[in-house]
């Protein structure tokens, strides 16, 4: 179950191949980037990341690599191969993260004043899309799991009820899986939407490897979603900021509008390193080595879940979840305190901490020996007397507060604003997006009334931007 050595030659990656050729046969460049293959880079930085990184750090406009907008050459070939691999009508490479993927979907599918149904645990980028477009959000609340202080699944019947009550909805946007790996019944959700001719967008950022192992959940793309977003950098082995935006084969959305929106929002200087990293990650996951890597991630997670669950005071979130996302708590310790102990006493960094527990990811790059060491640490902590700390115990990390909106996000965002002390903000209308990241779920949005229940989630803020009276 140890990590397999990865080779980019395991499957054809056209952009990686072309970039490799460029490295071997460089041209003399009088163009961006100005460091000229690393000749004008800080020496310490060059030693840190290596000369080779600069030898291939170019843009998509030169060296016969093709272009991203409009797509051509090896870049287009790489995106076409990703579309074939994932089973989409079209797949776009995005080097500005899934934030821009979500913004492009919003900007390319929503008109000002459109009503959309969105899950309240959506990433802040979905909500930012509402500010850009002037959409009117109708919130769909996932089930709350109070024992774990997290959001759970979207209930299909709740969605159906919302659609019956709101006849003018133009789009439904659902996050699946949740940050902690909780799964919704996406097949039923998609069927409910399509029965009414309404597009369904799935923010599947944390499920980018599902397509490559039938022991993992089925991607919404295969179930008929109209658009799906994958953060390939989160779990798929691509470099940070790398995302895929998929248009479903029978999508109700206009792919040309979304592509135009992407051109407006995306950087005009995409990193060829990030683009090649997306190509390489897809090729690697699609290969036999990729199957072994995803198998290892599953087996490592199962091993840890079984062993850790047997330790007194330790609990692991079970049920309809992605097995590779392990949400764990130890009785008597807040999640933040447990995170601190792991980091300071054992040199272990976990994904995140919430009010109750910690999120551990079993990634394709983790080894069994790493999980054995993590198990040793959890066992030692659970059998030791680690007192919780008051300042960590009182701070909350997952917004589970109800929404009281009196303005649309766009109306509030463009209204006159003032800054007030946090304690004086109660009863005022928020004028800013406040989202804890990770997981990027909004505590407050523009247009929502601030209540005293929000204050525990605002420990990092001394002032809040509110609507001027």
Helix and strand layout, with pairings?
Elements: H1 14-24, H2 43-49, H3 51-55, H4 73-86, E1 90-94, H5 97-109, E2 115-119, H6 124-133, E3 136-140, E4 144-145, E5 150-151, H7 156-165, E6 169-175, H8 186-195, E7 200-203, H9 220-223, E8 227-230, H10 232-235, E9 243-247, H11 255-265, H12 272-286, H13 288-309, E10 314-316, E11 325-330, H14 335-346, E12 352-353, E13 358-361, H15 368-382, H16 390-393, H17 409-413, E14 417-421, E15 434-436, E16 441-444, E17 463-467
Parallel strand pairs: 2-3, 2-6, 6-7, 7-8
Antiparallel strand pairs: 1-9, 4-5, 8-9, 10-11, 11-13, 12-13, 14-17, 15-16
Mind explaining what this structure looks like?
- The protein has 469 residues and is α/β, with parallel strands linked by helices.
- The protein is 37% helix and 15% strand.
- The chain is built from 17 helices and 17 strands.
- The strands form five sheets. A seven-stranded mixed beta sheet has the order 1-9-8-7-6-2-3, sandwiched between helices. A four-stranded antiparallel beta sheet has the order 10-11-13-12. Strands 4-5 form a two-stranded antiparallel ribbon.
- Helix 5 runs parallel beside helix 6.
- The protein is globular.
- The relative contact order is 0.12.
- Residues 1-9 have low confidence and may be disordered.
Overview features:
37% helix; single chain; disordered N terminus; four-stranded antiparallel sheet; alpha/beta; seven-stranded mixed sheet; 469 residues
Which term fits the overall shape?
Answer: globular
Determine the fraction of residues in helical runs and give it as a percent range.
25-40%
First CA to last CA: what distance? 61 Å
Strand segment count: 17
């Amino acid at each position: 179950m140890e990590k397999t050595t990865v080779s980019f030659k395991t499957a054809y990656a056209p952009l990686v191949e072309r970039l490799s050729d460029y490295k071997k046969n460089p041209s003399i460049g009088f163009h961006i980037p100005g460091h000229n293959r690393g000749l004008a880079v800080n020496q310490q930085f060059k030693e840190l990341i290596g000369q080779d990184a600069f030898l291939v750090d170019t843009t998509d406009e030169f060296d016969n690599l093709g272009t991203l907008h409009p797509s051509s050459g090896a870049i287009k070939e790489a995106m076409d191969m990703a579309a074939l691999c994932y089973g989409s009508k079209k797949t776009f490479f995005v080097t500005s993260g899934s934030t821009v993927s979500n913004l492009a979907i919003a900007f390319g599918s929503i008109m000002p004043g459109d009503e959309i149904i969105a899950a309240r645990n959506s990433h802040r980028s979905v909500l930012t899309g509402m500010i850009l477009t002037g959409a009117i959000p109708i919130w769909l609340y996932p089930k709350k799991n109070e024992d774990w202080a997290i959001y759970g699944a979207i209930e299909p019947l709740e969605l159906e009820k919302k659609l019956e009550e709101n006849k003018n909805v133009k789009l439904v946007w659902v996050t699946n899986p949740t940050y902690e790996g909780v799964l919704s019944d996406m097949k039923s959700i998609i069927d409910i939407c399509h029965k009414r001719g309404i597009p369904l967008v799935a923010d599947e950022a944390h499920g980018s490897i599902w397509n490559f192992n039938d022991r993992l959940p089925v991607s919404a793309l295969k179930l008929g979603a109209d658009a799906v977003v994958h953060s390939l950098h989160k779990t798929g082995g691509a470099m940070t900021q790398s995302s895929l935006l998929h248009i479903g084969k029978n999508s109700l959305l206009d792919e040309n509008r979304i592509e135009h929106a992407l051109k407006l929002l995306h950087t005009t200087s995409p990193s060829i390193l990030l683009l090649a990293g997306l190509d390489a990650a897809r090729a690697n996951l699609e290969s036999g080595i990729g199957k072994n890597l995803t198998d290892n991630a599953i087996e490592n997670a199962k091993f840890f879940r079984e062993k850790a669950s047997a330790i007194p005071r330790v609990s692991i979130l079970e049920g309809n979840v992605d097995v590779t996302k392990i949400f764990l708590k130890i009785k008597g310790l807040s999640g933040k305190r447990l995170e601190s102990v792991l980091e300071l006493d054992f040199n272990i960094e976990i994904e995140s901490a919430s009010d109750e527990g910690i999120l551990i990811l079993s990634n394709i790059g983790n080894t069994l020996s790493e999980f054995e060491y993590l198990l040793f640490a959890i066992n030692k902590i659970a059998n030791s007397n680690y007192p919780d700390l008051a300042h960590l115990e009182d701070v909350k990390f997952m917004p589970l507060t109800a929404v009281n909106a009196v303005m649309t996000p766009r109306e509030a965002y463009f209204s006159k604003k003032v800054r007030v002390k946090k304690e004086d903000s109660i009863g005022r209308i928020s004028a800013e997006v406040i989202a804890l990241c990770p997981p990027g779920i909004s505590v407050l949005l523009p247009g929502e009334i601030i209540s005293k229940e929000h204050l525990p989630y605002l420990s990092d803020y001394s002032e809040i931007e509110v609507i001027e009276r």
